[in-house]
Amino acid sequence: MALICSVVRYNKRPWTLNAERRMHYQSRAALAKEWRQAFFWLAKVNQVLPFEKAVVIVQPHYVKGPRQDVDACSPAAKAAIDGLVDAGVLITDGPNHVIEIRYMASLPDSVEGLSLIICQPEQGENHERK
Question: 3-state class of 101 per DSSP?
Fold first, then answer.
């Protein structure tokens, strides 16, 4: 069986957990809203099909400077995943539908951004707890 995946990428540097800790709550809310809406519209415009269950792979891209820690972009990733839920790509972001989130090391690129790679779990992959 072929692995089914879709990629949604927003070409803006993702904010980090450390930056979020220093933000005023209103600034953080505005940033989360921007990212949520961006991923909603990117999924809609690119006609990303819905997933019953998904593994989400988070891949930040950077142009220069130090590479961020692997999970540093988790606030941006959370807002992006919420946007995919709003767009109907994911039913919810709860554990029955998003069964795994993988954070990849940041990748050198010509444009900063964040990609979410949404994949159907492989046949026989069981993440349910008994």
Answer: strand
pTM (whole model) above 0.85: yes
**Structural element, H or E, at residue 130:** none
Q: Tell me the domains of the chain and their CATH numbers.
A: 28-119 (3.30.1330.70)
The pLDDT, as a whole number, for residue 126 is: 56
Task: Determine contact, residues 25/79, Cβ cutoff 8 Å.
Answer: no
Beta pairing partners, 98: 54
- Quote the DSSP letter at residue 125: -
CA distance linking residue 24 with residue 35, whole number of Å: 17
Find the length of the chain. 130
What pLDDT sits at residue 67?
83
Give φ, ψ of 7 to 5 degrees: -120, 135
Backbone angles phi, psi at 47, to 5 degrees: 50, 50
User: 88 versus 129: which is more confidently predicted?
Assistant: 88
Is a pLDDT exceeding 60 seen at residue 125?
Answer: no
